[in-house]
Amino acid sequence: MTFAHGLASRMSLVAARHARCAAAAALALAVAAPTLLSAQDAEPDRLARLDISSKYAIQLLIDSANTEGLPSRALRSKAYEGIAKKADGRQIVAAVRRELIALRVARTQLGDVDDDELMAAAAVIEAGAKPAQLSTFRPRVKNRSDLQAFTIWASLIWRGVPTEDASSAISKLWQDGADDATFVSLWNNVQSDILRGLNPGTALQNRIREAPGRAPPSKGPPPEGQQEREGSK
Amino acid sequence: MSEPKVAIVTLTTALLVAIPSESRLAAQIVSKLEAGQYTVTDGALPLSSIRFAPTFEWYRPYTKVTAHGSALLSDQQLQLADGIVSGTFTSPTVYGVRAEMLGNASRALDDRSLGTDQVDVQTRVHVLFHDLGGMWFGGGVARPWRVAVVSSADVADAGIWTKVGDVANRFGVATFTTTFTNFSFSKIAALHDTLSAALSCSTEAPVTNVVGMVASQQAISLATTTNDACDRQSRFSDLETSVRWEAGPIEFAGKIGHRFGDAYDVTPDSRRWSSASATMWVSDRVAFIAGGGRQPALPLRGLPARSFGMAGLELAYSPVSKGAVPVSLPHTILVRSFETRPAANGMEKLVIRVGGVESVEVMGDFSDWSPLTLTRRGRDLWELALPLAAGVHSFNVRVDGGPWAPPPGVPTMRDGFNGEVGLVVITREKGGH
């Protein structure tokens, strides 16, 4: 009886301990559930359309970006784009990986800049520019945005302008204080020349000479004849 | 009874009223205001009246529903003239083949009748040859009510079309269409149903009934008579060729047709017909139109042949139903311009110009790459207000559910998926690119 009584009491203690553990686990789950659910809500549903391995690979890349302080929304957006365009899972993973690498390079070259600038600079790297060519834009200029310069730069390279020529042209314009309208005008003119059949590099060289903000500093009144020609321009 | 001829001279104005539309609804309300002078030899229509004609359209890439009606206002009284509800369902185009189903329910008021109702359903199969042409064939049934000599009709049609030129070309684009439609209908009616039915079933000499159809001894021989009813089979076919030419702000449309059938089914004034119209757009929504011609008798609606003329001012653009004109494969080069403008409440307004399409969509990083549908605001003007944050945004555009492409006039770069995206920079101080 004593043994049975002791066994029964021991079992009741174990059961009570188990009950307390279960209650504690339930309480912990209740506390953690909102966090887990919110994390799940933050998990984009559209990534679920990918195969498991692709989804896992992309999630790892996104986590890496978050760890490094890089804008993960750029990676997520690239994945959504691939899904919307019905790309293969492996192709989407490769595109997201390229985006992450470009963001890292841009961060290394530009330093601590906002996400928009970082993503625009990453587009330039993805287009094919060399990392060191971004160094021109490292010094920050107050009240001046380089987004348009980066956009035009990336597009010029994509249109076939040699990377060195594009880098040189954009950098020179930036250093000369060209505004957004100047960069847009340059792109429009080069684009129209390319559509007419001109070599992209040649088109850029021709148009960069016409871009405002490129005139050398004046050292005195020019001769009369030359003054007339400049006025007619 | 002599065939009455109605000469209609109208001054047409139209007002396009666009309701705010959700990206998923894509609905528009189009209303028309017409001021017209009608001249009739007999009948109940007033000599002068103002006509209101509202139209509602709801469309998605493969579905379209249209409701249209008109009412006459004369002497401060509103009188219903006609109304129609149409539904069109199309399948995706696979290897250039597309299926289509059309359904209509309508009522028409004529100056010599209490109004005729009709329900018709038709299916078609379209075969498309890229963007250059196509052909279709189909069939259906129509069931009219209160039409004296028609109780039901079988319709079979086929057509072929081709397109020459391009909208971007200085000479524009011309579309040629030829259709062949066969109508087979029967009339089952009691001898004492209507006077016209009695005449149709009589054994007297050939007479012309209310819609101009001659019941001859030959026709009677085809009829089956019973003690108190008769039925008769009638058949005729229409061959019609039309051309539509668009060059910049000028549009021209013309058609000629011929009706084949026996003399007791087709009256002389419905053997041949022709019509033409010209439209000149002076702005996105304002156009001068003029035209005239002749319309054959419509036995399914109990309407006689008519001559008409019109001249007017139009302040709207009404998209043409897919079921009424040849369908074509989507062509993204039709997008003529793309622009962003600052709008109210910190939004950016997206403005795209593309003509000859029925839907325009955009997608980009701003929408998490989900397609957003633009709203038509004019003849070739499409708009959408977006909450675009400052920064660089990627854009893709497509028309009529076709392939995605970068918009024109903006820098582009590869998207990493064997395609391109357009890049637009939105600044904080002012919008635009």
Based on DSSP secondary structure assignment, what is the total number of beta strands of chain A? 0
Morphology call of chain A: elongated
Tally the helices of chain B: what do you get? 2
Question: Beta-strand level of the residues of chain A, as a percent range?
Answer: under 5%
Tally of helical runs of chain A: 10
Q: Can you summarize the main beta sheet of chain A?
A: none
Sequence of secondary-structure elements of chain B: EEEEEEEEEEHEEHEEEEEEEEEEEEEEE
Gap between N and C termini of chain A: 116 Å
Helix fraction of chain A? over 70%
Low-confidence stretches of chain B: 1-48, 202-228, 317-332
Rg over CA atoms of chain A: 30 Å
The mean pLDDT of chain B is 72
Q: Overall 3D geometry of chain B?
A: elongated
Write the CATH fold name of the largest domain in chain B. Answer: Porin
Tell me the radius of gyration of chain B: 25 Å
Q: Overview of this structure, please?
A:
The complex is a heterodimer of chains A (233) and B (433). In chain A, helix 3 packs antiparallel against helix 4. Chain A is elongated. Chain A contains ten helices and no strands. Among the domains of chain A are: 48-130, no CATH class; 141-214. Chain A has 233 residues and is mainly alpha-helical. The radius of gyration of chain B is 25 Å and the shape is elongated. Chain B has two domains: 7-314, Beta Barrel (Porin), CATH 2.40.160; 332-426, Immunoglobulin-like, CATH 2.60.40.10. In chain B, strand 19 (335-342) and strand 20 (348-354) form a beta hairpin. Helix content of chain B is 3%, strand content 57%. In chain B, the strands form four sheets. Chain B has a 16-stranded antiparallel beta sheet that branches. With 433 residues, chain B is mainly β. Chain B is built from two helices and 27 strands. The interface between A and B is medium-sized, with 38 and 26 residues.
